Fold these 4 entries.
Entry 1:
Amino acid sequence: MSVKKVVNYVKSQNKKLSNRKIGLLNIFFKDPLINEIDIDSVFERANQILPDYFLELIDIIYVGEFQYFKDRDINAMYSDSALYISNEQDNESDLIDDVIHEFAHAVENSFGGLIYADGVIKQNFVSKRIKLKSFLKYENHDIDEYDFTEIEYDEDLDVFLKDGIGYEKLNNLTQGLFLGAYSTVSLREYFARGFEEYYLGNRDYLKTICPYIYSKLTLLEENLDEEGETKYEF
């Protein structure tokens, strides 16, 4: 099932889905969560930690089982002002991670010009990717067919990193360089993982590992008014 089919399906089923409004978030449940999770606690926390102008980027959140997720081995996605979240969550922490991560993509979609205009995050990501390449080459991995300067998602490189190297080993190799293995996959995931750290983790650590993401998120918060409009140029 493609992204388009997922979107069209859930939209066609809206009237049949159970609905909850928690703060500024409008949540529809296609399927119940498989574990006992305090939904109110998770989405109330999202309302508390994210600025309103970020929350208002999302019109609706769908929770359920989607074949597309299983095909891609993912738990969530952002598309057209909506979040799609898997109902297979281990606990509240697992769910809030997915929610905030996908909000990052919504923020990037709306404010990408402000985030990436000067190119510093992109340059930082590419330079780290090149260092990662040298680490892998030193360990005699066959990496010649992969372009480590490509910032967009590359499925072949993703499969190589996940299956050929393994995320556990990749986490060890990139400690102090990336915020975990998945942030090596693309520029978008690099930013999204930094966004997670900013709102759910340790901002001082983010400032050390990814200073440009930290500074851009700080400037973005300071530069937007209550309607999400820029107050000044930067």
Entry 2:
Amino acid sequence: MKAHQESGQRIKINNNPENPAKTGVEEFEKLKNELEAKTKLAEERLNQIKYLQADFDNYRKQFEKEKERIMELANENLIKDLLVTLDDLERASRSTQKEGGNEGLIMLYRNFLKLLEDYGLRRIEAVGRKFDPYHHEAVLSEKSDKEDGTVVEEIQPGYAFKSKIIRPSRVKVACNKQQEVSTENGKGKNNRN
């Protein structure tokens, strides 16, 4: 290869005097192939970055959900522990209302209950409703003029936190069925055998 000096620059001179265009086409094809290879590599890297970004977004969302779940569980456990205090305040409030006494205690109970309700606590309705084993725990039954299985009295209030029952209501249930059983041969009174 010969070089020619003009204004301090080196100029390549074609060594193939027979077909000077062939060398330029080969160079062009070589550069074109390199460009295509680099473009393909760049696209692969871009796709990898997109997948990593999507994975990171999924991880972040999962982390946020897990964090919320842990906070909700911590709140649930705290509220379960505070139910004892709520029960005590309710009993004290009821006794002072009967005596016409301390409005401060009644206000304290109402404010405490409101605070817990703001965090998602909800009292389970029981009296007058049909017994539901998911919401109620039957501790007593009594004969009543109400339909069988109707809750006639609430012994201890039940509570739900958000959508989860954290303590079922302890209740007395109406039971009107005649279940008289004779001890003779294990047969009922109405059986004739």
Entry 3:
Amino acid sequence: MVPRVESFHDRATGAVSHVVHAGKGAGCAVIDPVLDYEPRAGRTGNESVDRLAHFLADQALSLAWILETHVHADHLSGAQRLKERCGGRVAIGADVVKVQRHFAEVFNPGADFIADGRQFDRLLADGERFAIGDLVFEVLFTPGHTPDSVTYVVGDAAFVGDTLFMPDGGVARCDFPGGDAAELYRSIERILSLPPDTRIFVCHDYMPGGREPRWQTTVADERAANIHYAGLDAAGFVAKRRARDATLEPPTLIIPAVQVNMRAGHLPAPEANGMRYLKVPVDRL
């Protein structure tokens, strides 16, 4: 079955959330929901989650799965807020434990945080399939940007997270812990081995050149025109990616985002005074 896709772009972070469904009244999945966050005040908001919830209600969609493509470093996950509003189960690739173990050392989250993926409702294996009504989802491990990056393939559509951007945006950086440019190249080859007319849905768009946001392309267009991939062999790709990564600053929201996202979108537990806190490691990142 050809899935229907409704996408929501968050201009503050460039993130794109996708609702995947088979039509009005059907079950659905939401991929990469966003929790609004104002870093200067440490304030969260629900505007992005509200937009998703309103669409689900308008279309009478039943939320079965909230799917994360990886532990994001550029926005906070709205998975738990969306689950509270609309139900569903939160899932991510099983290699999330690699990311959790690294960042548990960085943020020292306390004894209540166990780095085994239990914060998520389900950890998905490479090649695993699951259905929402007539829609069948397949999980492809596509590491390189992060160790836990996955792509979800549904019918003629592939949701690639940050592994690929639109052709004029290139591909993901590989300088995060566990990232690897050679591994990213292999993951991109895996994605682009899908049929040429496969719809590619990216989960981030930074609007290069000031253009309007875009999030849908095809395997054929990525192969022909991706500015960081097209025309390069593996060695050329790795050299270009590493040179670019050496010039990049950390994402603006990496410190709060990773602490929340490695917890499946849960905020840290309240401390003795009833307040929740996000830590800032000094001279570490």
Entry 4:
Amino acid sequence: MSIFDVMGPIMIGPSSSHTAGAVKIGLYAHRIYDKDFKNVEIHLYNSFAVTGKGHGTDKAIVGGLLGMKMDDERIINSFEIAKKRGVNVKFFSHHDNEKHPNMAKIIFCDDEPFSISGVSVGGGKISIIEINGKKVDFSGRHEYLILSYKDVPGMVGLIGTLLGNENINIAYLQISREADKEVTLALFKLDSHCPDNILAKLKENTNIFKVTRIEKLNID
């Protein structure tokens, strides 16, 4: 246990779970989506929906989506900043006993809808639990590669070999297949940084549709 687990993170806002955690969910959601956006829906569940406005959860998520970190003083003005940037944000509140008490689902709506769900687990810590309908589980405390590729044999081996040749160890791998569309979503948790040349090689492969590197952020 670190001192930050006792004292909480450096942040703007009254609550580490409802404010700091919400910023992280927004920040990682935009990094996972990995594109500019102009239209986004934010669905708040349970405690986030009930007390989130008072704790600034709504402003915190928008701030994160705009690239702000937990200690950014601009978070309190995130709605106005989003409007100036031409970003249209719609909020929805839900009560669902089967969902986590502090859950947000973010849907980017510019092209085909792309959704990311995250939960705030306390002390400013979060977990991303869903990407575009596929279950995942990561906290953002490591570096990740998220790949969408054609469901053909040998892809995991190919990716693992490219990483291994750079002495990059795979600490964890999670795979979700969408058999009817022959598409696989793979989440690689890495022990070290994935360099640009490996990203380039992955993107050159015609069976790989999208490659997203999520670098570890020092925002605790």
